[in-house]
Amino acid sequence: MEKQADELLTTIKKLKSAISKENCKKLNLNKCERVVQKLASFSENCEDCQLYLLDLKNHFNQLEGNIDRIDTVLTQHKKVINDIVSHLQKKHKLVPEGMYLTLYMSIGMSLGIVFGLTIFENIGLGIPIGLSIGIAIGAGLDADAKKKGNTI
Predict the structure, then answer these.
(1) What pTM value is reported for the model?
(2) In whole angstroms, what is the distance from residue 86 CA to residue 83 CA?
């Protein structure tokens, strides 16, 4: 399986050099590289990951053949990547980068509004306090998840 992952990563790098930066961003090739690496690390124990690696190999070969018509296969590409990311999140408990930050930032703002209205009697004071606490907690949890290798 390592050989397949290396071939896929090589194909992705070829695509990056062959297409424009705008199309590279549309296809989210950096995320694709991370997904391939995660699939390779789980492929020994998970049959689904092995199948997804084969799927991706066929998909990227198709993309390489249709390099001049990237826009036509863009929706299919996003669907394939989202299916794989969904599997990695559900089965292997991985989280997307920045998930905790966005989650706790919104929770912090909500709590900041509540505390701002009740304790400080000033909503303008509660929002930034709640926001900063939420950002601090979320950034800490994101850093911890990244350190443990649980991010996609």
Answers:
(1) 0.83
(2) 5
pLDDT class of 1 with cuts at 50, 70, 90: low
Helix, strand or coil, per DSSP, at residue 151:
strand
Mean residue pLDDT across the chain: 91
Contacts of 39 (CB under 8 A, 6+ apart): 5, 49, 52, 53, 56, 84, 88
Phi, psi of 122 (to 5 degrees): -150, 105
Name the pLDDT band for 19 (thresholds 50, 70, 90): confident
Domain ranges in the chain? 2-92, 99-148
Report whether 145 contacts 100 (CB < 8 A): yes
Question: What's the N-to-C CA distance of the chain in angstroms?
Answer: 19
Burial class (CB in 10 A: 0-12, 13-18, 19+), 31: middle
Q: Measure the CA–CA gap between 108 and 66, rounded to whole angstroms.
A: 46
Mean pLDDT of 71-82: 88
Residues 6+ apart with CB under 8 A from 54: 4
**What's the CA angle centered on 73, arms 70 and 78, to 5 degrees?**
110
